[in-house]
Amino acid sequence: MSKELSTPDARSRLREMIKDIRFAMFTTRHDGQMHSRPMTTQLSEDDDAGRLWFFASRQGEPVADIALDSQVNISYADPDRDAYVSVSGTAKVVEDMARKNALWSTFAEAWFPGGVTDPDLALIEVNVTGAELWDVNTNKAMQLF
């Protein structure tokens, strides 16, 4: 089953699948190879999963990698629910203090003790261009976008 990115139902289904998965594997191209690292998706109430948000260190590999190649993949897995999702998108670092404040949490503060104004805190926006999810219970794969 295929749906367009602009379909609200597809974005809603994606959001529902990933909203309770705390860590995602965020994959970038690094020195010519694919490199993944665990990161936490910062979902906001006003987003419908057409965009995904991540906090990262400005000095870290994800920020450096997306400056060279903005194409990323984000993988989610929740074996307890048999939920598996692969998201493709285009990433960029954005300067948006209002969005940082809206997404800020005590969990983020553990990584960035300087708070939301920490100069090392980068906000990564991923514009979702495609997503696939697997429903193990019905033995079906679904391409959403």
Which stretches are low in confidence, meaning pLDDT under 50 for 5 or more residues running? 1-5
Overall, the morphology is: globular
What's the overall average pLDDT, rounded? 87
Percent in strands: 35-45%
Class based on secondary structure composition and strand pairing: alpha+beta
Account of the protein in words:
This protein is α+β, with helices and mostly antiparallel strands and 145 residues long. Helix content is 22%, strand content 41%. Strands 1, 2, 3, 4, 5, 6 and 7 form a seven-stranded antiparallel beta sheet that branches. Strand 1 and strand 2 form a beta hairpin. The N terminus is likely disordered.
Essential attributes:
145 residues, disordered N terminus, alpha+beta, globular, seven-stranded antiparallel β-sheet, 4 helices, single chain
Secondary-structure map with pairings?
Elements: H1 8-18, E1 24-30, E2 33-39, E3 51-57, H2 61-68, E4 71-78, E5 83-94, H3 97-103, H4 106-111, E6 121-135, E7 140-143
Antiparallel strand pairs: 1-2, 1-4, 3-6, 4-5, 5-6, 6-7
Describe the structure concisely for a colleague.
This protein is an alpha+beta fold and 145 residues long.
